[in-house]
Write a structure and sequence with these properties.
The chain is of the alpha/beta class. Helices cover 43% and strands 19% of the residues. The protein folds into 3 domains: 118 residues; 118 residues, no CATH class; 56 residues, no CATH class. A hairpin with a 5-residue loop joins strand 4 and strand 5. Helix 2 runs antiparallel to helix 5. This is SURF1-like protein.
Length: 323
Amino acid sequence: MRVLRTFLKPGWLLLLVFVVAFAAACFAILAPWQLGKNSDTEHRNDLLRAAVDTAPVPLDRLAPPDTPLNPDDEWHEVTLTGRYLPDDQVQLRFRYSEERPAIEALTPFRVQGSDRTILVNRGVVATGPDGQVDVSPPPTGDVSIQARLRKTQGTSPGKEPRVEGGVRTAYTIDVAQLSRLTGVGLDPYYLQLSPGQPGALGEIELPQLESGPFLSYGLQWLAFGVMVPLGAAYFIYSEVKARRNRRESDAEDEPVDVPRPDLAAKPKSRSRAERDRMRQMLRDSGSLSGNDLDVKATSVIGDGAAETADDAVKTKLAQRYGK
């Protein structure tokens, strides 16, 4: 009970709350977050491997009109014919090429023989020495192209597409918002133009087939979720053990009350022994009569009889040996 009261103090309670909250966050939030990113990366790598090993197919086979893009079909290469709409082009900012700031050109593409329009990422263009971007216009008229299917992206608050300096500008490829910006109805996905195709600019390389550090990060959070409670338990055990040792040490050092002898009895014993010795001396010398020996042997100092006997002894000793 004493140990329980010790750990019900505010400091210990705050430590307990922190340990429980941290362990819960590790197991319920942080580890699943990293492990989920690892799963997404592995799934993307599987799609890339499958797409690279597959020959291009017509667009309508994988992405029919008025049909959302199947996530498993992302990165697959398709073929289509139509024409670019350069007047509705958008520049995607905050990109890099050859270690220089760059943009990507997003140009709508009207599919031949239909009313479908699909946004095409034509590639990357680095800025010049003066900070300006020179984007080559796409070819006019109908062309046939090959491109990879890509799913639309989201937009962070405050990063919505806009017109800046007379140029349509975006920071992510959010097809729905770009459709509102350009006023052109777009299919709910976009195409990443393959190298060497009509209208292609700088090549956008495919992602590397690597898992990244997400799996190790997830395992680390799981380890932290186990180690922190174990560390707190060991700390509490050490504290309890130290307190128990201190109590045992204090109990051993506590003084023990030993009964003290009655110091007043010693003078009494010495006085009685001294009187007995004097009586024996007088008896041996014949100075004490039988009547004198009748003095009460059990008399205690302070009784009248004992005091008279002492006076008689002293008087006879003085008469015999002189004062």
